[in-house]
Amino acid sequence: MDVILLERIAKLGQMGETVKVRDGYARNYLLPTGRALRANAANKARFEAERAVLEARNLERKNEAQKVADVLEGKSFIAVRAAGETGQLYGSVAARDVVEILAAEGFNVGRNQVVLHTPIKTVGLHNVELHLHAEVEISIELNVARTKEEAERQAKGEDLTSADAIYGVDEDALRPEDFFNPDADYDLDEETEEAPEASEEAGEEEDK
Fold this sequence. Notes:
4-stranded mixed beta sheet, rRNA binding, Large ribosomal subunit protein bL9
């Protein structure tokens, strides 16, 4: 479907351009959200007549988005989720969860503004992109942990999925000789040493 863009759309075009998009994308997103018009003679004339108003409205939206961006840029938010010892979540953190977390902190961000290509499935510090406007893109940090206490430790740089965190073992302090010392005199199991003699005695009895 050919549409006339009413604002700049990333990777698609600038305001006023006529571009070809998939029908579903146009019907489900661009047209109902007022970001585009069907490309026909009537709408082209309408756009030209309203261009000044549309440009002013776009600038206003950009300024509003920038104000939010100035506050959100680089901020960290905690997401408490159940997870196993290795850090694998029992579930995942999706775009809708990010929207809810931000809403709880007083930030109104739409689900379509959260750029999360794949759901988050492990504890850790994750960067999440927010496209607040076609010309305003920022990144926030999502601190996914099992508890708020663990989130605080994680924020300080601690790896909650390391052997040290899980088992109390300092991975950096481990050496090969801690597991096997080639110079040590390892005794064989007593039963193993006696087994061949027992077998020989049994053989002698059979010969008699």
